[in-house]
Amino acid sequence: MGLFDWFKSKRQPQIDPALWAKTLAGLPFLASLAVDEQKRLKTLAEGFLAEKEFSTAGGLPLSDEICVAIAAQACLPILNLGLAAYRDWVGIIVYPDEFVVARRIEDENGVIHEFDDVLSGEAWEGGPLIVSWRDVQQAGDGYNVVIHEFAHKLDMLNGEADGMPALHSGLDEEEWQATFLAAYDDFCRRVDDGEETIIDPYGSDDPAEFFAVLSESFFEIPEVIAGEYPAVYELLKRYYRQDPLTRSTNAANAANTAAS
């Protein structure tokens, strides 16, 4: 029985074990999860699929592969936060490739500017989340459009995306602002100076993008965040209640032991 059969029957979706194994194998940052974490992620992803509504655009056929790949990556950031972190919205729209959004903005002089914005993903406050399937498939080495857009959704839990998500107990707003803004200012300086950063320079666009970009890197290349911005790494570790650097180190050590 495919996912769509489960959706029609109104029962909790059950991800096919073979498809789940294939999904994990294609995403090293998920494959490095401990066995118990992978089990919890699968259960969370099934709950996610039961709550969210997937649709496609641009002629892309909707498939179990698409739904599971997005669900698995979307649920990684909330592995220890729970599905409630993605409350109050349901729609996920998947395009085959980058898509165009018409923009209309007014500058400080009152002049209206209209232009087309080519995007790989976008999250709307209170509305759907949109991603390019081609970009979803390019996940790895610090680039992850799913984690990026879902980080925006976490950021929007307490209002407009501004780089500070709704904080749970044990996290202080003043500490968050001081730590993140210091790192953001430093990162902007590095980008403005022409430095080729491992962290996506798009993070210098504004604090909201900095949080989303750092979230991508936190889960995919944690050693970079821990090395360049250790205070931010510790803050993200406390926020997400996960330690991807220790996780990847343990997975590498286990692989080396098995090979020897």
UniProtKB/TrEMBL annotation:
Q: What is this protein called?
A: Zinc-dependent peptidase
| One function term, GO molecular function aspect | metallopeptidase activity
Q: Which Pfam families match?
A: Peptidase_M90
- Cellular compartments per GO CC: cytosol
User: What's the domain of life for this entry?
Assistant: Bacteria
What Gene3D superfamilies is this protein classified in?
Answer: Collagenase (Catalytic Domain), Glucose-regulated metallo-peptidase M90, N-terminal domain
